[in-house]
Amino acid sequence: MSWLITSAQTPQKFPFLLRTTGTPSSRVCFLRFPLSSCVGDAASPGNSNEKVNCEAATYAWLQENCPLVPIPKLYGFGLSTDPRVSAVARTRLADLDIGYVLIQTITSGEMLPESWDEKRDDVRLQQNLQRDLASIILSLASIRQPRIGSFRLDGKGYRHLDNRPLNLEAFDDRRLHQPNAVESRDDAWYQMSSLAAAEIVFPQLFQKKLVNGPFALCLTHLHRSNIFVDDNWNPPYWLSGKLVDEIEPAEDAPVHAKFLQRLRDEEQIQNHTRNAEPLSSTMQEAWIYGSFWVTLAVMDPVGFTSVFYDRILPEHFSFSPEELTKADYHFFARFWRRDISSIIDKKQHDRSEYSEEGLC
How far, rounded to the nearest angstrom, does the alpha carbon of residue 359 sit from its chain's CA centroid? Predict the structure, then answer.
């Protein structure tokens, strides 16, 4: 059997053929590689393997526990440290010395962006899309998890809910160690003051009753390019078609409300409200209390500061645009780290070297 395999996560595609014995045929699959530069392998060797491990474990969990959630079939995966797991007989992927995930290619339908701009205002299509997304989210939320974490496989192939949740230290590290994290001295003061203030602000936006759960698997990379639809848009913050820091609360509240109504409708159909607070109620409260914006901010390191100053402070702490314009970011940024001027000097030097190397 012959497999035509292409890369789905690298800047260009490399078609190549893996030959195995059996009845001749041809299938198209995706062979995904983690990009070392994006997962921080240089600073923390093993990150690429961890990404592959967690992704494969999540595929396995979904296929076992949520079979109605439409995802590509996982054919196999491998780590650079040698373990290979495959549902494909006698593949030659063991020769690779890097981690990979081999998944099914979606051959029906089209990516949502291909029809989004033209059909986004079609009420029927939006209803179909929102209904199906609501059904998927409820399916994932129907199985409660004991804590925040990620699925991974141990050395014997057993799946566990492992790892710890990230906290704001990850954003601190990005500012300190990523060479192009700041664009200028003023940008550095602006970003670092947001991190200092976030330590005080964020805890006030979360509800204490949810500190210990319930927790559920969620789709952390849910954007249009990751969704395939048919002609009827059958397969949430981006339901307005905007980037994280472009969402306007007043304009997008109706879109959010419509999606929550679809979610409530699906909850009634699937009877998801019997023994716990409905997911739709939790999501509604997140919008009201502001934790909705915190979630968006921490999922997007680039948009973090914009969401903090343009959405969280004005909407939930009554800061006016004039107050934010006149704010002394230099003063507040000093609470983030001692000797911050030296840190900013170093960041400017890092940025200069980064630019000279032609990386930005």
Answer: 24
Domain ranges of the chain: 2-107, 167-356
Inter-residue contact 137 to 219 (CB < 8 Å): yes
Q: Which tokens is 126 given? A: 């939006």
Burial of residue 175 (number of CB atoms within 10 Å: 0-12, 13-18, 19+): buried
Residues 321, 325: Cα–Cα separation, whole Å:
6
From the CB of residue 39, how many other CB atoms can be counted at a distance below 10 Å? 18
Q: What is residue 175's DSSP assignment?
A: H
* Average pLDDT in the chain: 81
User: pTM for this one?
Assistant: 0.74
d(CA 133, CA 224): 12
User: What distance in Å separates the CA atoms of residue 330 and residue 344, rounded to the nearest whole number?
Assistant: 11
Strands (E), the chain: 2-7, 16-19, 26-32, 74-78, 84-86, 100-104, 110-111, 150-153, 159-162, 228-229
User: What tens digit of pLDDT does each residue of 1-42 get?
Assistant: 333 333 333 333 334 444 445 554 556 788 888 887 778 787
Give the C-alpha separation, 347 to 345, whole Å. Answer: 5
8 A C-beta contact, residue 255 and residue 239: yes
Provide the b/e sequence for 326-360 (b: ≥16 CB within 10 Å). Answer: ebebeebbbebbeebeebbeebeebbeeeeeeeee
pLDDT in tens, 90-124: 455 555 667 888 888 877 778 888 888 888 889 89
Q: How many residues does the chain have?
A: 360
318-334 residue pLDDT tens:
999 999 999 999 999 99
Q: Please give the Cα distance from 177 to 27 (Å, whole number).
A: 43
Q: Strand pairing of 150-153 and 84-86?
A: unpaired
